From TrEMBL:
It holds the Pfam family Esterase. It comes from the Bacteria. This is Esterase. PANTHER family: DIACYLGLYCEROL ACYLTRANSFERASE_MYCOLYLTRANSFERASE AG85A, ENTEROCHELIN ESTERASE-RELATED. InterPro entries: AB_hydrolase_fold, Esterase-like, Ig-like_fold, Ig_E-set, Mycobacterial_A85_antigen.
């Protein structure tokens, strides 16, 4: 009888141990499954956007997004039981934004988001919110090609790098195309317009919708001391910016090196009616300079977010040269909150004074890619018509 009781007790203990171990194993498995579950970030909903980052040992994690009112703004995130931090924020207006996390004071990108863009020497996580503004920032159904091209620049004295976009159907047609020379701003390079400006997607969409004429788009590197973007790790030359020879070095290269290369190697229509030049900030200054120094080379002129501080007789004489040579479109744009707004207004007044018929496109906002993408989306529909 005692043996039977002892057996029952041992059996009961074994059952209890089995159930306990099973429960622990089940909980461990559930925890492992939670940990193995992919982290989705950002998760864009109809009204909210959720951001997530795994940082089990962090004490404080915050989110900063370019849609926030100032660079000092950021939002605290909450930590769950497995060390994933998250925060839900109201869905911003349709636009392309950048953001990062601040983990115990350290700025980090969203490792769960493969959508990054390079801004000079830094990479930024991207939030692309669908809507009216960003319709043409997504991939079109009919897509052209973007090629990275090396060309010789005797003017600058080096073999240099640029991007060339050809529209959908270019490779299979015998058609000749007009060309837009699209110039980046200070701190940028040949990659800027295609990466941050979404130039390829904008042109693809405009062309597919028949809102824009099919065109080639050339995006050079506007830094004479660089053979290519810094990511290619090539040596650079330092120029004295006060040297008069430096002032027009790049714009001379546009006319003497880049245009001849493009018109020799692509089915580009080789006349002023089929050439447009546009640029933002520093590239806007290059746009004004290249058309002032080489009037009659481009019949479509689009300086963006730029201006001259003082209108000199020499500058006005150059504008008269542009007027005399003739052009089809002078489209000038700036944001009303741009730090160059006063200079832009001064330049616009000089255009008016000198009889340069033009459009002055004023947008809200400042010196930002949000404006420059809108500008390309707008003037791109006016070219070569």
């Amino acid at each position: 009888m005692k043996t039977k009781v002892r057996f029952i007790k041992m059996y009961s203990f074994a059952i209890i141990c089995f159930l306990f171990i099973s429960a622990i194993t089940s909980q461990a498995q559930e925890l492992a499954n939670v940990r193995r579950a992919p982290i989705i970030s950002p998760e864009i909903g109809e009204k909210m956007v959720i951001f997530r980052i795994s940082a089990p040992k962090a004490k404080l994690v915050r989110l900063y997004g370019s849609w926030m009112k100032s660079s000092d703004s950021s939002t605290n995130m909450m930590k769950d039981s497995v060390g994933t931090w998250s925060v839900s924020v109201p869905r911003p207006a349709s636009e392309l934004y950048t953001y990062h996390f601040i983990v115990d004071g350290m700025t980090v990108n969203d490792v769960n988001n493969i959508f990054l863009q390079r801004d000079g020497v830094r990479y930024l996580s991207v939030l692309l919110v669908p809507g009216k503004t960003t319709t043409n920032y997504f991939e079109a159904n009919q897509r052209g090609n973007l090629k990275k091209v090396w060309y010789d620049s005797p003017t600058i004295g080096s073999n240099r790098h640029m991007y060339v976009y050809t529209p959908y159907g270019y490779e299979t047609s015998n058609q000749n195309y007009p060309v837009l020379y699209l110039l980046h701003g200070g701190g940028g390079d040949e990659d800027a317009w295609s990466t941050m400006g979404r130039a390829v997607q904008i042109l693809d969409n405009l062309i597919e919708k028949k809102l824009a004429v099919p065109m080639i788009c050339v995006m050079p590197n506007g830094n004479p001391g660089q053979k290519a973007a810094k990511t290619l790790l090539m040596d650079e030359k330092i120029y004295d910016r006060n040297d008069p020879a430096f002032q027009n070095l790049y714009i001379n290269s546009i006319v003497k090196d880049i245009i001849p290369y493009v018109e020799k190697n692509y089915r580009a229509i080789p006349n002023a009616d089929s050439r447009a030049v546009a640029g933002l900030s520093m590239g806007g200054a290059h746009t004004i300079s290249v058309t002032n120094e080489f009037p009659g080379t481009f019949n479509y002129i689009c300086p963006l977010s730029i201006g001259v501080r003082t209108i000199t007789p020499e500058f006005e004489s150059k504008l008269q040269g542009v007027k005399k040579a003739g052009y089809k479109l002078y489209w000038f744009a700036c944001g009303s909150d741009d730090f160059l707004w006063e200079m832009a207004k001064t330049t616009e007044a000089a255009l008016t004074k000198n009889g340069i018929g033009h459009t002055f496109f004023v947008s809200p906002g400042g010196h930002t890619w949000a404006n420059w993408r809108i500008y390309l989306n707008t003037f791109g529909q006016l070219l070569f018509k």
